Amino acid sequence: MFKRSSRISSVRVFVRYAHDIQISRTGKPILRSGPGGRSSLTGHTATVFGANGFVGRYLVSRLAKQGTTVVVPWRSEDAKRPLKVSGDLGQVVMLEFDLRNTQSIEEAVRHSNIVYNLIGRDYETKNFTYEDVHIEGTERIVEAVAKYDVDRFVQVSCMNANPESTSKFYRTKAMGEEAARKVFQETTIVRPAAIFGAEDRFLNNLGSRKSIFTSYRNNRYVRPVHVVDVARGLELLMFDDSTAGQLFELYGPNEYTMTQILDLVSKVTMRSSWRFDLPKPVLKAMARVLDKLYWHIVCPDEVERQFIDICYTEGAKKFRDLGIEPTALEMLALKYLRIYRTSSLYDAPPSREEVQDRYMVD
Asked: For the structural domain made of 19-357, what CATH number should be given?
């Protein structure tokens, strides 16, 4: 005679504490659950416009792996696929949208408690001008945010945004900031400097020698910032409601001229850096011709930006206000520029000059 054995299955029960419950600015409860990490829930739902872009991919990855539900409005089927695996099953929600379609924008923000707008264009196309993207697109997004009483709105602009700038790109960026603040006063504005990273158009253009024509003798001052630091800063804004309505300028710890950066690129890639410095009128004329090509190379406004040094806004908050220590360009230059070495020098150790620059050895 056989006896039936009973097995007792243990069920893990998560205890919710008072600090797991947060009341948002608009009175909505935010309920956290789980031990933290990919399979937990932060209680936040974030919409990231421009998620397929350079910074957007890093931001979605950071938000999703912490347990945030991320809504990704997309236009390109191929570009949005890699984002699906950024979070656990059901953590990343894909919604097709059009920047000129107000209904699709509203569908993307109506269930979120924070919205990031990272949409931007470095150059104009036949379908979208700077005004279409930076001003009118921002207006549609922020009006949807106000309509559904979303807790937070973060407008990602850029350093040097100024309504009186000689660059149309910088002017429209500043006008987009004003449009956002006019509709939603609690808008948090973030102005990152030139961003470098694995897929950037900063170090990669210099390392691959795409930007062979320059002007202003490369005397422009820049302060490059690492993409991971920018994404981390944007993530922290979600958890700190005191940052609502603030202006943040995010830039790297060191200031350089473009000549110094070109010298660094030459040392790391172990290739001579050659550039043709042309007068501004000549380079702008060339840019007008090249801008008509199907593949983007350079546009006149990008030439104009070569003559504008980085400038700072008095009273703007910085990385240190978020508790972040930004990473210097020298510390990561080898990681991102090694691919531009020749095959025989690919595994060569850093030169003595690189070590001096990187660790500031006398």
From this structure: 3.40.50.720
